[in-house]
Amino acid sequence: xxxxxxxxxxxxxxxxxxxxxxxxxxxxxxxxxxxxxxxxxxxxxxxxxxxxxxxxxxxxxxxxxxxxxxxxxxxxxxxxxxxxxxxxxxxxxxxxxxxxxxxxxxxxxxxxxxxxxxxxxxxxxxxxxxxxxxxxxxxxxxxxxxxxxxxxxxxxxxxxxxxxxxxxxxxxxxxxxxxxxxxxxxxxxxxxxxxxxxxxxxxxxxxxxxxxxxxxxxxxxxxxxxxxxxxxxxxxxxxxxxxxxxxxxxxxxxxxxxxxxxxxxxxxxxxxxxxxxxxxxxxxxxxxxxxxxxxxxxxxxxxx
Length: 304
Known about the structure:
It is built from two helices and 18 strands. It is mainly beta. The protein has two domains: about 10-15 and about 145-260, Thrombin, subunit H (Beta Barrel), CATH 2.40.10.10; about 20-140 and about 260-290, Trypsin-like serine proteases (Thrombin, subunit H). The chain has a six-stranded antiparallel barrel. Strand 3 (about 35-45) and strand 4 (about 50-55) form a beta hairpin. The radius of gyration is 18 Å and the shape is globular. The relative contact order is 0.22. This is Trypsin-like peptidase domain-containing protein.
């Protein structure tokens, strides 16, 4: 396997199209009808008329704050102890949308339901084609993995840099973003959590900027399927030029996905179950029992 860092603390490359087609941008309309691009997420199960996707819980908590107050009460990567206490969930799903890519086009998917657990910083959304346009619905999904990485191991994040949302006088909006892969090493593992994440997590040398929250983090590999082990949780350092300096190590925190692998499943397929107890739910899930969510790992999933 080729060493991807070339002597740097971390490295970056443009995300290939097949990776970006599994990502989405969370867009929310606030109480003054202004749109904001809030964070990143990724698809874990895609059917013809419905998809399930994951992002960071604090991204959806930020959506709630936007809709209640009409402005950002705290930065997306604000440390929890300095952020205001979240009110009971009160999210308007009509004011929430997910932007994904399908056949080189940007597709806006509607949201039927969301659930999130702030302790582990994991959230799940159920998506459907907007206006019933199933032919444009994204079908790319990521494979999940139940293994916690080890200190010194290479990991890779797929997410969006320079995320911004431009509103015009007609009520329309335009999202600006740059899909990238960033590779780095695991600095420390926290099996029982730490002060920035109360669930299992790990720290990496990869610096994260605003908008990258919720992006999938993989075991790094040059062949076979790229398997997601976590998502971008937080970065205690403020955005700035140093976050683009590959000679300076970051200290981002990655929330591990609460998954476990199953064996002996139908047709010999490997499966994992994403299990968490959400403390906030909105809408109605079509395939969700309030505690467990299932996702198949398929051979046609994204490879890297």
